[in-house]
Amino acid sequence: MCALGKLPPDIHQYSVGPYEFYKPNVYYRPEVNRLLTQYFPLRPEAIVQLFRSRGLYPRLNAPTGTLRGGSLTLSSGEGTIYYTITGADPRLPGGEISPEAIRYWQPVSLTAGQTVKARAAGAPKAREWSALVEF
Fold first, then answer.
1. Does the model's pTM come out above 0.90?
2. What's the domain count of the chain?
3. Between 38 and 22, the higher pLDDT residue
């Protein structure tokens, strides 16, 4: 310190001790635990809402599925579910329904290794679709 009690401008205030010894269990671990238990679990929903509010993510939720004994049951909160078993997207570029898409109305029987891709579709004129999910 200089005579006036202030640091010279070329010395940062943190350049002068006393310093506390860095202890990972005191500083690092609690922060990692906080991020894993409080921050990250809330982020997916917050990010989806942020993207939706800016028109960057579909308003419709993607379908969910339950596989039981070789049969896939799909459900969606709203909209009509379309799926394919060929690996193609049920939606064409531009928003039209793919000719390979099948409208879901009953559980889908699957064979080993078969892939189902599904989306929920809103009003046909709006061309609104959910995100693509794969089972």
1. no
2. 2
3. 38
